[in-house]
Design a protein that fits this description.
It is a single chain. This protein is 22% helix and 26% strand. α2 packs across α3. It is of the alpha/beta class and 180 residues long. It folds into two domains: 128 residues, Vaccinia Virus protein VP39 (Rossmann fold, 3-Layer(aba) Sandwich), CATH 3.40.50.150; 38 residues, no CATH class. It is built from five helices and seven strands; from the N terminus they run ββββαβααααββ. Strands 3-2-1-4-5-7-6 form a seven-stranded mixed beta sheet, covered by helices on one side.
């Protein structure tokens, strides 16, 4: 299951005979076998319903990441795979820590004007977001390794956090398991 699936980046694993389920707060047209519109804080599935739960590029967007991780751990039988940006290591050209409002202000535009102009640095161009979906795609927190480690522990999960760094981008990635 892919929590916060957007249009379905991980649906490609279907080609290997894996049943795929996408979950997102917004309604998307995806290539998953099944799509469920739901909030990551309240996943509508039974405990241990999925071998693997993926949470890629979600924790920086949600109000309560501890609860989201607990929910992912609850519905996972085996593991939770995650990734989240480490903007502290982004190159300056990637505009770390810059909100959409700040980026718009640099061009003397409102956030919605910036959203509608369709440049490479805004969510509409990159992901095809609609105006009513705009608020869900802002980063509301920026993670350090220490903060992320603490949140993972509070969620009752264990695992190793690794760095993925390429082309000026940096991410925390890892595999989590339920604490026994």
């Amino acid at each position: 299951m892919d929590v916060g699936c957007n249009e379905g980046m991980f649906a490609m694993i279907r080609q290997f005979g894996v049943l795929t389920v996408g979950v997102d707060i917004n309604r998307w047209k995806t290539n998953y076998d099944y799509f469920v519109q739901a909030d990551a804080h309240h996943l509508p599935f039974r405990t241990s319903s999925f071998d693997t739960v993926i949470i890629a590029e979600v924790l920086e967007h949600v109000e309560d990441p501890i609860h989201v991780l607990r929910e992912a751990g609850r519905v996972a039988k085996e593991r939770v795979l995650f990734s989240t940006p480490n903007e502290y290591l982004w190159s300056a050209e990637k505009k770390p820590f810059m909100t959409v409002e700040e980026a718009a202000g640099k061009e003397n535009k409102t956030a919605l004007e910036y959203f509608h102009q369709g440049t490479i640095n805004n969510p509409k161009c990159l992901f095809g977001f609609e105006e009513n979906e705009f608020l869900f795609h802002r980063h509301i927190r920026y993670w350090t390794r220490e903060e992320l480690t603490e949140v993972i522990k509070k969620a009752g999960l264990d695992g190793v956090i690794e760095d993925l760094i390429y082309d000026g981008w940096a991410y925390f990635v890892g595999t989590l398991k339920k604490r026994i």
